[in-house]
Specification:
The chain is α/β, with parallel strands linked by helices and 292 residues long. The chain is built from 8 helices and 11 strands. Strand 4, helix 1 and strand 5 form a beta-alpha-beta unit.
Length: 292
């Protein structure tokens, strides 16, 4: 951790230094009163950390100190010129989230992680996942169009193959913001993501990515993977295709029925205010995992 700026008595903007020297902007939300645990929010691809602020503030009121961060190339960690920014998609896990784990790890306070989509992918890639006592992830799936309903599958394939490739070549990065789809993505992230979504089990099926299943098998902490039945990008069958790689973890699956009170969720609704009952489930699970 390089430094900090205090926004108020609860929120600090801090700078994390990844193992390769890249500087990341993060925000730390201090628990109201005694912190019973620390918590890292591992966000989705192209989603800036500000999106998770309401959840972070909610968690502080229940005794958790929370860290959010923008991965390199995104949000407050975006370089001045994204066109010339070269990176590997896996850097977000192996370097950026790993730096967050180092910053939040304490010998006397348990550390948990809540993931959103990519956040559930990232956990198995962490070189220091052993410092995290448990993961609760929403919307994590394998990304393959074949797991999606037919109309969504068609729309996604059109975006992957007809719309985004020429725009990415033209701009030098993937202009998701221009299309109203989130933050712009570094070109390296887009091309790798697009490739892995060709496979039913994501990068585990990619012959260019040997050893991935073995790496994920080293995770042994408890994991809960929750997916909404109206999340067209990550339906439960897509989740199961990916999460089976955590074969040595204590893995639980939850299917969220939006008709049972939460209302529409989709792929992004897990962290909107109406989803507070889901947040209660997350924080209650973490509290249960805390060893006296």
């Amino acid at each position: 951790m390089q430094g900090k700026t205090v926004e108020n008595n609860q929120i600090e903007t801090i700078v994390l230094k990844a193992a390769d020297g890249y500087l990341l902007t993060a925000k730390r939300y201090s628990a109201a009163g005694y912190a019973k645990a620390n918590l890292i929010v591992a966000g989705a691809t192209g989603v800036p950390q500000g999106y998770y602020r309401r959840f972070a503030e909610y968690a502080t009121m229940r005794g958790f100190t929370v860290l959010t961060l923008d991965y390199r190339g995104i949000g407050l960690s975006r370089p001045a010129d994204l066109r010339r920014f070269d990176m590997n998609y896996l850097d977000w896990a192996k370097l950026d989230l790993a730096a967050a784990v180092e910053a939040m790890s304490r010998p006397d306070v348990p550390l948990f992680m809540v993931g959103h989509s990519f956040g559930g992918h990232a956990f198995g890639l962490l070189p220091n996942h052993d410092k995290v006592a448990g993961l609760y992830t929403f919307a994590t799936g394998a990304g393959w169009h074949g797991w999606m309903p037919k109309l969504e599958s068609l729309r996604v394939r059109l975006m992957w193959h007809l719309v985004l490739p020429p725009l990415t070549r033209w701009k030098g990065y993937s202009p998701w913001r221009m299309l109203g789809m989130g933050e712009d993505l570094p070109a390296g992230v887009f091309w790798q993501w697009r490739r892995w979504c060709r496979f039913p089990h994501y990068f585990f099926d990619d012959p260019a990515m040997p050893g991935m299943r073995e790496q994920y098998s080293t995770v042994t902490c408890p994991i809960v993977a929750a997916n909404a039945l109206d999340d067209l990008w990550a339906l439960p069958r897509s989740r199961d295709a990916f999460m089976q790689a955590y074969r040595n973890a204590r893995l639980s699956h939850i299917d969220i029925d939006p008709k049972q009170g939460s209302g529409p969720i989709g792929h992004m609704g897990y962290f909107k205010t109406l989803a507070q009952p889901l947040w209660d489930d997350v924080l209650a699970q973490f509290s249960e995992w805390i060893v006296p």
